[in-house]
Amino acid sequence: MTENWEYVLVATLRTLRKTMASRSEDKAAATEEEPTETLPSQKREDRLRKFRELHFKRNEARKLNHQEVVEEDKRLKLPANWEAKKSRLEWELAKDEKKKECAARGEDYNMVKLLEITADEAERWERKKKKKNPDTGFAGYAEAQFRQYQRLTKQIRPDLQGYEKQREESGEDFYPTSNSLSYGTHVPTQDGIDRMVEDVEKQIEKRAKYSRRRAYNDDADIDYINERNAKFNKKAERFYGKYTAEIKQNLERGTAV
């Protein structure tokens, strides 16, 4: 009886061991099969993620490229010296604001400006001033006209607020092209017309002061019949006056032979 019980116990242990071994083999096989099944899907997800990233980057590059093209087109439509004029206008606006602030505080703008200038800047400005000669004399009508143009444009104080408002209202037609129909439709303001009239009157007044036309001398001898003859007589007097002075005096006294 005891031998039978021991035999049954040994058989049961062997059966249990076989069952546990088979289960462990099934688990190992399952773990070996899972990576093979999940590996293709993981690769597919990685490829899709990279594709989405590339698609997003391409769209971003397209937007940035379009913005750069639009900005470059605007820059090409601007005048060649637009940046220099813009920086100068900004500097002049800042200067006007500084003057207003000094006037509100009761301070002298020139003194405040001198306090802000360093010794190096003052020395460099003096050297530049010595080298620069704004008026080299009359060299030609083109050079004189260009200097006059420079003097007049430096006096202009543009209305930047009105300029920005007009640009917003005009939109794309603010920078006309060959296909634009808004050419010649701009009407100047009354303030602009008044400034132009005032400037022209100042030019006329200044030109009248420096006129080279000589005043008429009532005491001078009249030996001409018109303006052209007067100029000829002056030239003849300048070259031959010393030779004909005695003859002229004898004719005036009536003692000429």
Automatic annotation (TrEMBL):
Its main location: nucleus. Transmembrane segments: none annotated. Pfam families: SYF2 (PF08231). Residues 19-46, 166-189 are annotated as: Disordered. It is found in: Nucleus. Coiled coil: none annotated. It comes from the Eukaryota. InterPro entries: mRNA_splic_SYF2. Keywords: mRNA processing, mRNA splicing, Nucleus, Spliceosome. May be part of a spliceosome complex. Involved in pre-mRNA splicing as component of the spliceosome. Belongs to the SYF2 family. This is Pre-mRNA-splicing factor SYF2. It comes from Ataeniobius toweri.
